[in-house]
Amino acid sequence: MGETMIFLRRAADVAVATLVAIPITVAFTTPPAAAEPHKQAAAARRMLAQLKVARPLSIRGYSRQKFQPRWAVRKGRCSTRQLALARDGRGVRRNSACQPVKGRWYSPYDGKWLKSEKQVDVDHVVPLAYAWRSGAKRWSTAKRRAFANDLRRPELLTVSHSANIAKGGQGPQSWRPRRRAYWCEYATSWITVKRHYRLFVTHNEKKALLNMLRTC
User: Is 173 helix (H, G, I), strand (E, B) or coil?
Assistant: First the structure.
């Protein structure tokens, strides 16, 4: 009888351990939409379908000052740009003014690793001028400022200076990252930002985004 009780207790302990382990395993092995690119692409296509398609607005009246301060000061002395560099870099060290003085940054646009803060830029995935022509022209200054400093959406990304210059203020119908492997994520980020801010897309822009999503 005693042996039977010991056996039952051990069986119960194993059952409890199994029940406890299951949620933990699931929690850590199912992350990222990146683990299932086809689902990521499907979600992006649904969001894209919800965006209004229209002709671009006039660039008249645009200036970067309309989005000022483009790099707002946050969390004490740190600007949005400095926070983005700290977030995207590896081994980043900052001085008392919050400026990165050491670190390494990976540029997903062209696959380059850069060792100096002077070699990188914080890119607006949806460029300010492009956003202006997509509807931001009609926004308040406060909303434009929030857009230019948005660290919650995938709008700000650290990339090489050369890639940022090459991109300029162009949309996906005119410019795409050199690394084709990044097209899926780039298109998804672009669509996510536009949907959140209710910016419209042009016909050619939508077509280009759909083509990029096919690489997911």
Answer: coil
Please answer whether residues 153 and 115 qualify as being in contact, where contact means their C-beta atoms are separated by less than 8 angstroms: no
Is residue 72 within 8 Å of residue 156, measured between CB atoms?
no
Predicted TM-score of the model (pTM): 0.81
User: What type of residue sits at position 95?
Assistant: N
- Token look-up 């949620």 returns 23
DSSP 29-91: HS--GGGSHHHHHHHHHHHHHHS-B-PPPP-TT--GGGG-SSS-EETTTEEHHHHHHHHH-EE
Residues 6+ apart with CB under 8 A from 5: none
Q: What are phi and psi of 106, to 5 degrees?
A: -105, 130
Q: Reduce the secondary structure of 132-167 to three states and give it as a string.
A: HHCCHHHCCHHHHHHHHCCCCCCCEEEEEHHHHHHH
Question: pLDDT tens digits for 38-97?
Answer: 888 899 999 999 999 999 999 999 999 999 877 998 767 899 999 999 999 999 999 999
